[in-house]
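Sanity check

After download, print the first record. It should look like this:
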Amino acid sequence: MTGENIRENIRDEILKAANLLAAADLLAENGFINDAVSRLYYYLFYYVKALLLTESMQPKTHEGTLRLLGMHFVNKGLLQRNISLIFSKLMKYRQDADYNPSFFFTESDFKELREEAVQAAFEVQEFLKRRGYIKLQKGNDPEKE
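Expected structure tokens:
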């Protein structure tokens, strides 16, 4: 992957993430809280994938994504530990939301998790900006260079 390819792929991942956050909000507004929580996970997942692209890493599994986040960014002190903790929590909650028929999230749960996910994504976004991988326009949409 070339430097410009990496930047394009990072922008694509962030655009996917933005769509998933919008979907999560719509689902929550319409009472589909478990589905909204699941979308929050994928929102942050695409931000983490964008982050991993900076090291030319494309993990094959969700667990691998979490592991690489910890090894290459958190353990090296490049990002705060809370990002991997939030990502790990959302990963577990996505599994509960999608596969546990007796598990129900509340609107309050969604709001709290959304706040955490957005904060973690913001920290990733700031890292990507500092490293020159993205420029942001108004509305936090990656700018096409």
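If your output differs, re-run the checksum step. Summary of this record's structure: The chain has a mean pLDDT of 93.
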